[in-house]
Protein: Carbonic anhydrase
Organism: Poecilia reticulata
Amino acid sequence: MIFLILFLLPLNRSSCGGNVFSNWWVASSNPCSVCLSSCLLEQHTSPTSPAGPTGQDYWSNKYPYCAGSFQSPIHITSDLLRFSPTLRPIEVRNYKLSSTEQLTLRNDGHSLKLSLPPTMYVAGLPNQFTAAQLHFHWGSSNWPTGSEHLVDSKQFAAELHIVHYNSDKYPDINTAIDKSDGLAVLGVLIKIGDFNPAYEQILRFINGAKYKNFEVRVPGFNVRGLLPARLDEYYRYDGSLTTPPCFPSVLWTVFRNHVTISHQQYLALVTSLHASSVQNAEVTPLNNNFRKPQPIDSRVVLVSFKEGLLVPILLSCSILGVVLIVAYLSCRLRQKR
C-alpha cells in the first residue's frame, strides 16, 4: 500500500538544482526552490513592506482591505484543490510583439515593471481582459525565495505577474482596479536553472532602470516566451492585489509548471536595482519584494488538471486501512486469550 501511494505522488516540479501603491498596479503610459515555513517568510522584509510600523503587517492601518477577506498571495496546498472541468486552456492573444514596438521598463521603487500595449489580451475567461503591465517579485542573492505564491510549502526564487483588466466592462485599469471582477493576473513561478532567452529581453536593459523612477525603452518581443510551455495546467482562485490598497479584485491564474532563469539572470534581477532615488545619499537595495501568504478564508483553489488529486484520498484510505488492521489484530488477540 505504501509503495502504491509513493508511486502515485506527483513529482516535485521545483526540486533543487495619495495612493502610490494603487498607481504601482497601473500600467505606465510611457540557486533553487526551497521549502520554507511561513514563520521564516515573516523574517524577510521588502521595499514594499519595510520593517517597522510601515511594514506589511501594518498596511491595514492605512489600507483596510489589506486586513480583509480574499487576500493574496496564498499557500496552495493539496487539500484546497478541486478539479473543475470548466477550466479551459489559457488563450493569450497578440503576445508576440514587433521589435518596432517600444515598451517602457521602469523601476518604481517597489518592483521592475514593463508596460504592455492594449492589443494584448487574454480570451477564454468570463470576459476579455486586456494587458496593462507585467512586473516581478523576487528574493535576494542570499535567499533565492521570493515568489509570492507557495505550492505545498515550496517557495520559488521569483514570480512574474502579467496584469490584465476587464475591458468588456471597464474603459481602463484605473476604473477596473477596485471592482470585484476588474482584474485578471497570470502568475508564473520562476526557478533558478537554465538560461532563459525570453527573460533576457527584459533583463539586458535592467541597468537603465537602476534607481527609483528610472525608466528605459525596450523593443517589443514575444511575451508568450515568458510563460510556461503548457497553458492548460493552472491553479485558479479569487484574490487580491498583493500590495496596498489590496483590493480583492483579482481573478488569479497561477501556472502549475514553472519556468527557469539562470543564476546569472537571477543575480541581475536581485542585485541591479535600488528602491531609493539617485539623489538619496543612502542606497536602498530593491529585493525581497514579496508579500507573505494570506489566510485562505474558506476558499478553494480550482485546478484544470487531475494528476495528483488522488493523493489525499489515497492517504486517507491508507490511514483508515491501518486503523482497521490494528482493530482486527487487537480483536484476534483478545479471542486467543
The chain has a mean pLDDT of 84. The radius of gyration is 22 Å. Residues 307-337 form one domain.
